[in-house]
Write a structure and sequence with these properties.
With about 290 residues, the chain is an alpha/beta fold. It has a single domain, classed as Ribokinase (UDP-N-acetylmuramoyl-L-alanine:D-glutamate ligase). Helix content is about 35%, strand content about 20%. A nine-stranded mixed β-sheet has the order 3-2-1-4-5-6-7-8-9, with helices on both faces. Strand 5, helix 5 and strand 6 form a beta-alpha-beta unit. It is globular.
């Protein structure tokens, strides 16, 4: 039997989502989080390694960025083989890798792109520097369908000067008021992405409010009961779930709501396998309440 014969009686594949991310050996964040999330939602994850990290549930000790050519080769091999319904980008690891990924995704402008701007670990270990943030803004933001920063990342990205920012006579770029998250969202959308979903876990308040913005301003705001733990991989779970729901055919507002509901459940069922942070249970529906 030839390979082509076997396809005639195989079931059609689930929606396919391509992920660019760094590995996390704890299984809490990064590529492993994305794969678990997408599998849990019934999607097929394609995984391109952008960096290898050394970490435990307490923090990141080190990381090795992948050679950009290897990133491109991994991605192009699978993109040329399989129909991809959505792309999700997490930790990238180097400026050169940002440029390489930007070039690959520019060949697929019709595939929705979710960009999770991973700037640091939960403990605050830096996973991106100023140069990498500038490259993200210049090369990836204009190709992004939904950007998913937490409020800290939204403020840091919105503070980044643009290439054409006017400098005053003292040589300083005008300071932007980033205390207001709506102002940050406006600015991030002006820099090229279509939608921004800013998560509010780091803001004050009894509830966590996550807000979706488009060019007209606030599109949707969802308030969630604040859970007590500190979680490793919550942002990765949310962004990959969003990519998964887009791949399943939902529009951005619906996919953002479903992704938040799913992520909240994973956090509620989270567990603490080591000595550090809790890990969201992406397979909570398998494990049940017990
Ligand atoms: N990707 C990798 C490889 C990481 O190590 C981390 C954090 O340590 C993240 C992404 C971001 O994780 P979170 O979802 O907790 O923001």
């Amino acid at each position: 039997m030839s390979l082509s014969d076997s396809s005639s009686f195989s079931t059609p594949p689930p929606p396919i989502v391509l992920v660019f991310a760094g590995t996390d050996p704890t299984g809490g964040a990064g590529l492993q989080a994305d794969i678990l999330t997408l599998a849990s939602l019934g999607c097929h994850p394609l995984s391109v390694v952008t960096a290898v990290t050394v970490q435990d549930t307490i923090g990141v000790d080190d990381y090795l960025p992948m050679d950009p050519e290897w990133i491109v080769d991994q991605a192009r091999s699978v993109l040329e083989d399989m129909p991809v319904a959505a792309i999700k980008i997490g930790m990238i690891g180097s400026v050169e890798a940002v440029a390489a990924i930007a070039e690959v995704v520019s060949d697929y402008p019709d595939i929705p792109l979710v960009l999770d701007p991973v700037l640091s670990s939960g403990r605050g270990d830096p996973l991106a520097n100023e140069e990498l943030m500038a490259a993200l803004i210049d090369l990836l933001l204009p190709q992004t369908t939904v950007l998913t920063p937490n409020s800290i990342e939204a403020r840091r990205l919105a503070e980044e000067p643009e290439d054409d920012d006017e400098e005053d006579e003292g040589g300083e770029a005008d300071a932007r008021d980033t205390s207001d998250l709506a102002v940050c969202a406006r600015h991030l959308i002006d820099m090229g992405c279509e939608f921004v979903l800013i998560t509010g876990a780091h803001e004050q308040g009894a509830q966590v409010v996550n807000t979706l913005y488009n060019t007209r301003g606030v599109m949707d705001a969802q308030a969630w009961e604040r859970l007590p733990g500190s979680y490793h991989g919550s942002g990765c779970t949310l962004a990959s779930a969003l990519a998964g729901f887009l791949a399943l055919g939902q529009d951005v507002a619906e996919a953002a709501r479903e992704a938040q509901a799913y992520t909240w459940q994973t956090l509620k069922h989270g567990y603490r396998p080591g000595m550090g942070q809790f890990i969201p249970d992406r397979m909570y529906w398998v494990h049940g309440d017990e």
